[in-house]
Amino acid sequence: MASETDGTSSTPLRQRLARLYYGRDTAAIRFQFALMVIDMAIIAFFLAGPYLRDRPSYLILDYAIAAWIAVEISAQWAASRTTRGFLMRPMTWVDLFVLGTLLFPQWLFNFAFLRVARIWAVAQRPVFKLMLKRLGLKEQTDVVTAFINLFVFLFLVTGFVYSFFFYREDAGTGFIDALYFTVATVTTTGFGDITLPGTFGKLTSIVTMIIGISLFVRLAQAIVRPYKVTFPCPECGLQRHDADAVHCKACGHVLNIPDDGL
Protein backbone atom coordinates (compact mmCIF):
# COMPACT_ATOMS: atom_id res chain seq x y z
CA MET A 1 0.00 0.00 0.00
CA ALA A 2 1.34 3.42 -0.90
CA SER A 3 2.04 5.79 1.98
CA GLU A 4 -0.36 8.63 2.64
CA THR A 5 2.35 11.13 1.84
CA ASP A 6 2.74 9.85 -1.70
CA GLY A 7 -0.22 11.85 -2.93
CA THR A 8 -1.03 9.13 -5.47
CA SER A 9 -2.07 5.52 -4.95
CA SER A 10 -0.27 2.66 -6.61
CA THR A 11 -2.95 1.30 -8.93
CA PRO A 12 -2.77 -0.64 -12.21
CA LEU A 13 -3.98 2.46 -14.04
CA ARG A 14 -1.24 4.62 -12.51
CA GLN A 15 1.38 1.99 -13.32
CA ARG A 16 0.15 1.71 -16.91
CA LEU A 17 0.18 5.49 -17.36
CA ALA A 18 3.69 5.72 -15.87
CA ARG A 19 4.91 3.03 -18.28
CA LEU A 20 3.33 4.81 -21.26
CA TYR A 21 4.69 8.24 -20.32
CA TYR A 22 8.19 7.23 -19.20
CA GLY A 23 8.78 3.73 -20.61
CA ARG A 24 10.89 2.75 -23.62
CA ASP A 25 9.03 -0.30 -24.88
CA THR A 26 7.28 -0.27 -28.26
CA ALA A 27 3.84 0.67 -26.88
CA ALA A 28 5.31 3.52 -24.81
CA ILE A 29 7.31 4.89 -27.75
CA ARG A 30 4.24 4.86 -29.98
CA PHE A 31 2.19 6.57 -27.28
CA GLN A 32 4.84 9.26 -26.71
CA PHE A 33 5.22 9.80 -30.44
CA ALA A 34 1.45 10.31 -30.78
CA LEU A 35 1.55 12.83 -27.94
CA MET A 36 4.44 14.64 -29.61
CA VAL A 37 2.52 14.89 -32.90
CA ILE A 38 -0.49 16.30 -31.03
CA ASP A 39 1.81 18.75 -29.21
CA MET A 40 3.21 19.98 -32.52
CA ALA A 41 -0.32 20.49 -33.89
CA ILE A 42 -1.27 22.45 -30.77
CA ILE A 43 1.87 24.60 -31.04
CA ALA A 44 1.07 25.31 -34.72
CA PHE A 45 -2.40 26.46 -33.63
CA PHE A 46 -0.87 28.72 -30.99
CA LEU A 47 1.55 30.29 -33.48
CA ALA A 48 -1.27 30.83 -35.97
CA GLY A 49 -3.49 32.32 -33.25
CA PRO A 50 -3.09 35.98 -34.34
CA TYR A 51 -4.35 35.05 -37.81
CA LEU A 52 -7.24 32.88 -36.61
CA ARG A 53 -8.62 34.76 -33.62
CA ASP A 54 -11.43 36.46 -35.59
CA ARG A 55 -12.79 33.26 -37.12
CA PRO A 56 -15.87 31.56 -35.60
CA SER A 57 -14.05 28.22 -35.33
CA TYR A 58 -11.26 29.72 -33.22
CA LEU A 59 -13.08 29.37 -29.88
CA ILE A 60 -14.17 25.83 -30.75
CA LEU A 61 -10.57 24.78 -31.34
CA ASP A 62 -9.51 26.79 -28.30
CA TYR A 63 -11.82 24.89 -25.95
CA ALA A 64 -11.07 21.54 -27.61
CA ILE A 65 -7.36 22.06 -26.92
CA ALA A 66 -8.21 23.14 -23.36
CA ALA A 67 -10.08 19.85 -22.84
CA TRP A 68 -7.12 17.87 -24.22
CA ILE A 69 -4.59 19.68 -22.01
CA ALA A 70 -6.83 19.16 -18.96
CA VAL A 71 -6.97 15.42 -19.69
CA GLU A 72 -3.20 15.24 -20.18
CA ILE A 73 -2.51 17.15 -16.95
CA SER A 74 -4.73 14.68 -15.09
CA ALA A 75 -2.99 11.71 -16.75
CA GLN A 76 0.47 13.07 -15.92
CA TRP A 77 -0.57 13.63 -12.32
CA ALA A 78 -1.85 10.05 -12.13
CA ALA A 79 1.40 8.77 -13.66
CA SER A 80 3.59 10.69 -11.19
CA ARG A 81 5.01 8.92 -8.17
CA THR A 82 4.05 11.74 -5.84
CA THR A 83 1.85 14.79 -6.08
CA ARG A 84 4.72 16.91 -4.79
CA GLY A 85 6.99 15.70 -7.57
CA PHE A 86 4.29 16.47 -10.10
CA LEU A 87 3.83 19.99 -8.75
CA MET A 88 7.61 20.59 -8.71
CA ARG A 89 7.82 20.12 -12.49
CA PRO A 90 8.01 23.52 -14.26
CA MET A 91 5.99 22.18 -17.20
CA THR A 92 3.11 21.40 -14.84
CA TRP A 93 2.69 25.09 -14.05
CA VAL A 94 3.20 26.07 -17.68
CA ASP A 95 0.43 23.67 -18.69
CA LEU A 96 -1.86 24.95 -15.93
CA PHE A 97 -1.33 28.54 -17.00
CA VAL A 98 -1.81 27.64 -20.68
CA LEU A 99 -5.04 25.92 -19.68
CA GLY A 100 -6.17 29.10 -17.95
CA THR A 101 -5.51 31.19 -21.08
CA LEU A 102 -7.56 28.70 -23.11
CA LEU A 103 -10.49 28.57 -20.71
CA PHE A 104 -10.62 32.32 -20.13
CA PRO A 105 -9.31 33.86 -23.38
CA GLN A 106 -11.15 37.14 -22.87
CA TRP A 107 -9.43 37.82 -19.54
CA LEU A 108 -6.04 36.17 -20.03
CA PHE A 109 -5.43 36.76 -23.73
CA ASN A 110 -2.53 39.10 -22.96
CA PHE A 111 -0.72 36.09 -21.51
CA ALA A 112 -1.45 33.79 -24.44
CA PHE A 113 2.18 34.14 -25.57
CA LEU A 114 3.13 31.72 -22.76
CA ARG A 115 1.45 28.94 -24.76
CA VAL A 116 4.57 28.69 -26.91
CA ALA A 117 6.43 27.31 -23.89
CA ARG A 118 4.74 23.98 -24.63
CA ILE A 119 7.53 23.44 -27.16
CA TRP A 120 9.62 22.51 -24.13
CA ALA A 121 7.18 19.67 -23.43
CA VAL A 122 8.10 18.16 -26.79
CA ALA A 123 11.83 18.27 -26.02
CA GLN A 124 11.29 16.65 -22.62
CA ARG A 125 9.55 13.54 -23.90
CA PRO A 126 11.81 10.42 -23.91
CA VAL A 127 10.85 9.75 -27.52
CA PHE A 128 12.50 13.03 -28.52
CA LYS A 129 15.99 11.68 -27.74
CA LEU A 130 15.14 8.47 -29.55
CA MET A 131 14.22 10.44 -32.66
CA LEU A 132 17.49 12.38 -32.49
CA LYS A 133 19.41 9.13 -32.28
CA ARG A 134 17.61 7.59 -35.24
CA LEU A 135 18.22 10.74 -37.25
CA GLY A 136 21.92 10.50 -36.46
CA LEU A 137 21.82 13.58 -34.23
CA LYS A 138 22.57 11.97 -30.86
CA GLU A 139 25.84 13.88 -30.48
CA GLN A 140 24.04 17.13 -31.34
CA THR A 141 21.51 16.79 -28.48
CA ASP A 142 22.95 19.82 -26.66
CA VAL A 143 22.88 21.86 -29.90
CA VAL A 144 19.25 20.93 -30.57
CA THR A 145 18.30 21.73 -26.97
CA ALA A 146 20.05 25.11 -27.11
CA PHE A 147 18.35 25.89 -30.42
CA ILE A 148 14.94 24.99 -28.98
CA ASN A 149 15.58 27.27 -25.99
CA LEU A 150 16.47 30.14 -28.32
CA PHE A 151 13.49 29.43 -30.58
CA VAL A 152 11.07 29.33 -27.64
CA PHE A 153 12.51 32.56 -26.25
CA LEU A 154 12.11 34.32 -29.61
CA PHE A 155 8.46 33.41 -29.84
CA LEU A 156 7.78 34.09 -26.17
CA VAL A 157 9.16 37.60 -26.58
CA THR A 158 7.35 38.00 -29.90
CA GLY A 159 4.08 37.02 -28.25
CA PHE A 160 4.73 39.35 -25.32
CA VAL A 161 5.58 42.29 -27.57
CA TYR A 162 2.59 41.59 -29.81
CA SER A 163 0.19 41.29 -26.85
CA PHE A 164 1.30 44.50 -25.13
CA PHE A 165 2.45 46.75 -27.97
CA PHE A 166 1.00 45.66 -31.35
CA TYR A 167 -2.33 44.08 -30.45
CA ARG A 168 -4.38 46.96 -31.88
CA GLU A 169 -2.80 46.58 -35.29
CA ASP A 170 -3.89 44.16 -38.02
CA ALA A 171 -3.26 40.62 -36.77
CA GLY A 172 -0.80 39.68 -39.52
CA THR A 173 1.07 42.97 -39.63
CA GLY A 174 1.25 43.29 -35.84
CA PHE A 175 2.66 39.79 -35.33
CA ILE A 176 5.26 40.21 -38.08
CA ASP A 177 6.29 43.59 -36.64
CA ALA A 178 6.67 42.00 -33.19
CA LEU A 179 8.75 39.14 -34.62
CA TYR A 180 10.88 41.57 -36.64
CA PHE A 181 11.52 43.72 -33.57
CA THR A 182 12.40 40.66 -31.47
CA VAL A 183 14.91 39.25 -33.96
CA ALA A 184 16.50 42.66 -34.52
CA THR A 185 16.81 43.19 -30.76
CA VAL A 186 18.11 39.72 -29.89
CA THR A 187 20.74 39.91 -32.63
CA THR A 188 21.57 43.48 -31.49
CA THR A 189 21.15 44.64 -35.10
CA GLY A 190 19.06 47.59 -33.95
CA PHE A 191 17.79 49.04 -37.23
CA GLY A 192 15.60 51.42 -35.23
CA ASP A 193 12.69 51.44 -37.67
CA ILE A 194 10.50 49.67 -35.09
CA THR A 195 10.91 50.58 -31.43
CA LEU A 196 8.80 50.11 -28.31
CA PRO A 197 7.45 53.29 -26.74
CA GLY A 198 7.92 54.47 -23.18
CA THR A 199 9.92 53.23 -20.22
CA PHE A 200 8.21 49.83 -20.29
CA GLY A 201 9.25 49.42 -23.92
CA LYS A 202 12.87 50.29 -23.14
CA LEU A 203 12.98 47.83 -20.24
CA THR A 204 11.51 45.13 -22.50
CA SER A 205 14.24 45.79 -25.08
CA ILE A 206 16.98 45.63 -22.44
CA VAL A 207 15.80 42.32 -20.99
CA THR A 208 15.35 40.87 -24.50
CA MET A 209 18.91 41.81 -25.48
CA ILE A 210 20.52 40.46 -22.31
CA ILE A 211 18.72 37.10 -22.32
CA GLY A 212 18.89 36.78 -26.11
CA ILE A 213 22.65 37.27 -26.23
CA SER A 214 23.07 34.71 -23.42
CA LEU A 215 21.07 32.13 -25.37
CA PHE A 216 23.08 32.87 -28.53
CA VAL A 217 26.32 32.29 -26.61
CA ARG A 218 24.90 29.07 -25.17
CA LEU A 219 24.04 27.86 -28.67
CA ALA A 220 27.51 28.75 -29.96
CA GLN A 221 29.13 26.89 -27.06
CA ALA A 222 27.00 23.81 -27.74
CA ILE A 223 28.05 23.86 -31.42
CA VAL A 224 31.81 24.08 -30.82
CA ARG A 225 32.03 22.07 -27.59
CA PRO A 226 32.91 18.34 -27.88
CA TYR A 227 30.04 15.97 -27.20
CA LYS A 228 29.77 14.87 -23.57
CA VAL A 229 27.30 12.81 -21.59
CA THR A 230 25.78 13.63 -18.22
CA PHE A 231 26.98 11.03 -15.70
CA PRO A 232 27.82 12.16 -12.13
CA CYS A 233 31.12 10.81 -10.88
CA PRO A 234 30.37 8.86 -7.66
CA GLU A 235 33.64 10.12 -6.14
CA CYS A 236 33.84 13.86 -6.92
CA GLY A 237 30.45 14.56 -8.49
CA LEU A 238 31.72 15.87 -11.85
CA GLN A 239 28.66 15.81 -14.12
CA ARG A 240 29.98 15.88 -17.69
CA HIS A 241 32.29 13.28 -19.24
CA ASP A 242 33.35 12.10 -22.67
CA ALA A 243 31.00 9.42 -23.94
CA ASP A 244 33.79 6.81 -23.93
CA ALA A 245 35.49 7.96 -20.70
CA VAL A 246 36.82 5.19 -18.46
CA HIS A 247 38.21 7.41 -15.69
CA CYS A 248 36.92 10.69 -14.26
CA LYS A 249 38.94 13.58 -15.66
CA ALA A 250 38.84 15.39 -12.29
CA CYS A 251 39.66 12.67 -9.76
CA GLY A 252 40.62 9.57 -11.78
CA HIS A 253 37.81 7.42 -10.35
CA VAL A 254 36.82 4.47 -12.55
CA LEU A 255 33.56 5.22 -14.34
CA ASN A 256 30.95 2.86 -15.65
CA ILE A 257 29.00 5.06 -18.06
CA PRO A 258 26.08 3.05 -19.45
CA ASP A 259 25.48 2.91 -23.18
CA ASP A 260 22.59 5.25 -23.99
CA GLY A 261 21.21 2.85 -26.54
CA LEU A 262 17.44 2.76 -26.80
TrEMBL record:
Please give the InterPro entries that the UniProt record associates with this protein.
Answer: K_chnl_dom, K_chnl_volt-dep_EAG/ELK/ERG
Return the protein name. Potassium channel family protein
Entry's Gene Ontology cellular component terms: membrane
Q: Which organism is it from?
A: Rhizobium glycinendophyticum
TM ranges: 27-48, 60-79, 99-122, 143-166, 203-224
Keyword Transcription regulation recorded: no
Domain (Potassium channel) spans 153-224
Output the Gene Ontology terms for molecular function: voltage-gated potassium channel activity
According to the lineage, what is the superkingdom? Bacteria
UniProt keyword annotations, A-Z: Ion channel, Ion transport, Membrane, Transmembrane, Transmembrane helix, Transport
